[in-house]
Structure formats: C-alpha cells, structure tokens
TrEMBL record:
Source organism (scientific name): Neohortaea acidophila
Keywords: ATP-binding, Hydrolase, Kinase, Nucleotide-binding, Transferase
GO biological process, one term: fructose metabolic process
Annotated SUPFAM superfamilies: P-loop containing nucleoside triphosphate hydrolases, Phosphoglycerate mutase-like
EC class of the enzyme, as a word: hydrolase
Segments forming domain 6-phosphofructo-2-kinase: 21-234
EC number: 3.1.3.46
Region listing for Disordered, in residue ranges: 461-480
One GO cellular component term: cytosol
Full protein name: fructose-2,6-bisphosphate 2-phosphatase
InterPro entries: 6Pfruct_kin, 6Phosfructo_kin, His_Pase_superF_clade-1, His_PPase_superfam, P-loop_NTPase, PG/BPGM_mutase_AS
Molecular-function GO term, any one: fructose-2,6-bisphosphate 2-phosphatase activity
Keyword Transit peptide: no
Length: 480
C-alpha cells in the first residue's frame, strides 16, 4: 500500500499543472527487448520529458548494477548456461528492483523506468509480482527491431563506446556485442497473448507499428503517446527569438510591438543565417501569433505555421511595463519572482511552469517532426531549450538567450548538440540578472566579434554559462 504520508496536496500531481493523475498511481515502466534496441535511450527520454513536466521520474539501469560486480564481461557471460553469469545477472536485477521499491516510498516519486532486457516471460512475471506487492502499476514497453541496418548502426554509435568495452578495440567490441545479442536471442520471448493480463506497449521497428494492451490511466496513456511520437531520423531544430522589437528598445515587457529597424535587418538576414546552418534541407517555420515573430519570419522561404502556444509568457498586470517600473509598482512581486522565477505567476498572467504546460503539444509535435525552425520569444525559447538540454527549473528561467542569434539543436543518442550563429546586427540585451537593477543593456561589442567567440558551442547539457553572449563586460549598463 501507498505510505500514509502521501497525500494529494503533497504530490506533484496537483502542483505541476498537469494535475490529473490519480493520487495513488505509481508506475514502473519496464523496458523489454534485445540489446541495442534503443531501450536506454527511450528510458532517458521519458525521464527527461516527465522531469520537464515536473513529474518526478527515475531510471534504474540494471546494467549499471551488473557492472559493479562484472565491469567488462565478454559475450559468454550472457550465455544462460553460464551459471555464475546467471546468478550475477539475477542479483543485479534484484538490487535494481529493491532500490526502485525504496525510491517509490518517497511520496513525490511517481514513475520509475526499469531499464534492462527483461527478455523472458518468467523475468517479467517476477517483476510484475514484486511491483504488485508494493502497489506499483507496471507497464511493459518493448522495443522490437529486426532492421539489421539500425541494429548495426546502434552498436557502432553507442555500444563500442560503452563502459563494458572501455579501452578495447571498437571492432572487437562490435563483434563481441553481436555475440552478446545472439546469447539473448536464444531465450528472448516477445510480449504476446500469454501476457494479455499485463499492460504493455510494443514498439516495432522504431514505431512503424505500435501495439498497445490494457493501457489504464491518464499517465500511462500519456507516456505511451509520447513513445509513439519518437523517431530516430537525423534532424535539427533551429530556434531564434524574434528580431529586436520597439518594446525591447524601450525595455518594456510583453505587448505586441513591431520590430525596430535593427529587428527588421535581422529578419532580412535570417534566411542567409538559416541557409548557412541548414543548407538546402527542407524546413517548416513555426512562429507565435504575435507580430514580432511573424515579421521576423517574413522573408524565410519555407512553409509557416503560427501557434498561439508559442506566444510569450503572459505578464498579466505587468504587461507593457519595464522591469524598473515593475520593481517600483509591485516591489513584493518583483522580489518574489527573483526568488522563485520558475513558479512565480504574474498577477493575471503566467509563470514559467504555466508556459511549460502549454508547450507540451509543441514538444510532442517537435518529437514527431523532422527539421523545424521556431521563431519565438525569450521565455518560451528558454522552456523549449530546457526540454532538449535537460536544464533545471532553477536555471532555465535565467538562461541568457541573446536577440539576433540562431540556435541549432541536434538531438543525438544521449545528448543534444548545440550551435549558435549570430547575425551581424546589433541588438539590446533583454537579459536581467537575478537581483540586479532592472535595465535592458546595450550591446557594445560588434556582433561579428561575438560570433567569433560564440559559434560551435557543442553538446552543452545544462551549462548556462555556455548560453551567454561572450561576457557581461561587453554590455553597457545603460538604456539606449
Ligand atoms: P542494451 O540492452 O545493450 O542496454 P539498449 O536497447 O538500451 O541496449 P540503447 O543503448 O538505448 O540500446 O541504443 C541506443 C541507440 O538506439 C541509438 O543509436 C538510437 O538511435 C537507437 N534507437 C532509439 N530508439 C530505437 C528504437 N525504437 N528501435 C531501435 N533503435 C532505436
Ligand atoms: O523583454 C523581452 C521578453 O520577451 C518579455 O516580453 C518577457 O516578459 C520577458 O522577455 C521574459 O523574460 P523574463 O522571464 O526573464 O522576464
């Protein structure tokens, strides 16, 4: 049974804004499948997606437990006739399940992912019984893939560099890994009608077919829907703020202002900047419904779609004010926002948490899509960036996203690569440091100097220092 300390009021289900989860639901997502079928990648993406939505989730990777006793096994270790190997593998699975059950005793912990091959029916039955005994729901997620090209490229992309083969020749590693797969194939049983009493989702050949069975509640269906939208085609997502607006110049927030002359110049240069980064790849452009994003995207020669969900964070009664005016008129609110910027909701407006919730369909659509260019606003861009880079709620609202800069995000297995390209068009900085005097700042260093210092910021996972324009010293502390 659920521990008595867990109440609706204390659970994420109420406070995270997606609060439709039944108060007693805790879910163990049990990954199933042969090695190199993307299970760990899927598990990590689910954890990141749920974390972004403030649903506390954690991955328990049985391989990590196994590695403490057997750091670098060869394929023979995974032969089921190898008694010692079997014993150690079972011990690793038990240790992971024990830790997971302990983790679920904390009231805010809602979803665990048990990441292992779980490739036989008896192993899955055992997991279900352990979870049933703890009152934890199970959902089995199988990745089944018989596309040899995909499996081989997965091995080369991630397995030869796994800690299991550290310091070993990659060719030897790939061969041994193929042998390991054969060991598993001997005993592997796919989810089928024998397990019709279980909740499961079978993803076949990277989503070309999906079979779902007994999906029971909202959170389960949400996870399944997310899984159905994942693909592994190479692609990038480009994000840019709108060009400098008249409100940016005056230091006012919100509104629906036109671009400034420099903002219009950025709009003119954006197609060249995009072409430099995307070449001739086909793109779709998403904007908000506000004038400044449409004006910024106007010269882009691609299909365009305007989303209300991409509109800037609604600053309620503060819309149209400068930060200095907000500090003067609403000093307590101004301070409260600095103290907890992610959760602070403007009077009659929104918080960053609210923006994340309304962006969920955007993220889902982004996962389904290939190359997309999003022209949006500072706060919205921070939230989208946080999803891809796994940034924390403490840091993401403070991230510096300069105007006139195109960010390219390229999701790869286990990381998202980042590249920043600056247009040679100056703009004010709208970034305000926590606790600072509220004033927009003027960019005094030429953008080409910035560009030299700032292109090719690669693979930044949650490193806000990488997200800044070169240095605060290049920005004068005066208004234009
Ligand atoms: P192991 O059992 O050895 O831990 P695994 O199944 O966890 O293997 P991953 O390490 O997650 O495999 O493999 C990552 C690779 O799988 C990435 O290259 C990714 O592109 C690819 N991948 C992601 N999703 C799928 C999928 N549904 N089917 C096949 N491959 C996928
Ligand atoms: O100043 C530009 C702007 O897009 C405003 O319209 C918006 O209120 C603000 O940035 C969001 O940034 P922050 O959350 O740092 O105030």
């Amino acid at each position: 049974m659920r521990p008595a300390t867990r109440t609706r009021g204390s659970s994420n289900a109420v406070t995270n804004g997606v609060g439709v989860q039944a108060e007693d639901t805790r879910i163990c997502v049990v990954m199933v499948g042969l090695p190199a079928r993307g299970k760990s990648l899927i598990a990590q993406k689910v954890v990141r997606y749920l974390g972004w939505l403030s649903i506390t989730a954690k991955c328990f990777n049985v391989g990590n437990y196994r590695r403490t006793a057997t750091p670098q096994p060869n394929a023979a270790f995974f032969d089921t006739s190898n008694k010692e190997g079997e014993r150690l593998r079972k011990a690793a699975a038990e240790a992971a399940v024990d830790d997971m059950c302990k983790w679920f005793r904390s009231p805010d912990n809602l979803i665990a992912i048990l990441d292992a091959t779980n490739s036989t029916k008896p192993r899955r039955r055992w997991i279900k019984e352990r979870c049933d005994a703890e009152g934890i729901e199970t959902i089995f997620v199988e990745s089944k893939c018989d596309r040899e090209d995909i499996i081989l490229s997965n091995i080369l992309e991630v397995k030869t560099t796994s800690p299991d083969y550290e310091g070993l020749d990659p060719e030897h590693a790939a061969k041994d890994f193929l042998e390991r797969i054969k060991m598993y194939e001997r005993v592997y049983e796919t989810l089928d009608e024998d397990e019709a009493d279980m909740t499961y989702c079978k993803i076949i050949n990277v989503g070309s077919q999906v079979i779902i069975n007994r999906i029971q509640d909202y959170l389960q269906s949400r996870v399944v829907y997310y899984l159905m939208n994942l693909h592994i085609k190479p692609r990038s997502i480009w994000i840019s703020r709108h060009g400098e607006s008249m409100y940016n110049l005056s230091g006012q927030i919100g509104g629906d202002a036109n671009l400034s002359a420099r903002g219009r110049k950025y709009a003119e240069e954006l197609p060249t900047l995009v072409k430099r980064s995307a070449g001739d790849s086909p793109l779709t452009v998403w904007t908000s419904t506000l004038k400044r994003t449409a004006q910024t995207a106007q010269h882009l020669p691609y299909e365009k779609l305007a989303w209300k969900a991409l509109d800037e964070l609604d600053s309620g009664v503060c819309d149209g004010l400068t930060y200095a005016e907000i500090e003067e008129k609403y000093p307590r609110d101004f301070k409260a926002r600095d103290e907890d910027k992610y959760n602070y909701r403007y009077l009659g407006g929104e918080s960053y948490r609210d923006v994340v919730i309304r962006l969920e369909p955007i993220i889902m659509e982004l996962e389904r899509s290939e190359n997309i260019l999003i022209v949006t606003h500072q706060a919205v861009l921070r939230c989208i960036y946080a999803y891809f880079m796994g940034s924390t709620q403490e840091k993401s609202p403070w991230m510096e996203v300069p105007l006139h800069c195109l960010i390219r995000l390229t999701p790869r297995a286990y990381k998202t690569e980042e590249e920043r390209l600056f247009a040679d068009v100056p703009a004010v900085s709208t970034w305000r440091e926590k606790g600072s005097k509220a004033a927009h700042q003027v960019q005094t260093l030429s953008i080409s100097e910035c560009a030299e210092m700032c292109t090719d910021i690669a693979c930044a996972q949650d490193t806000p220092e990488n997200s800044r324009r070169p240095s605060p010293s290049i920005a004068a502390q005066t208004k234009p």
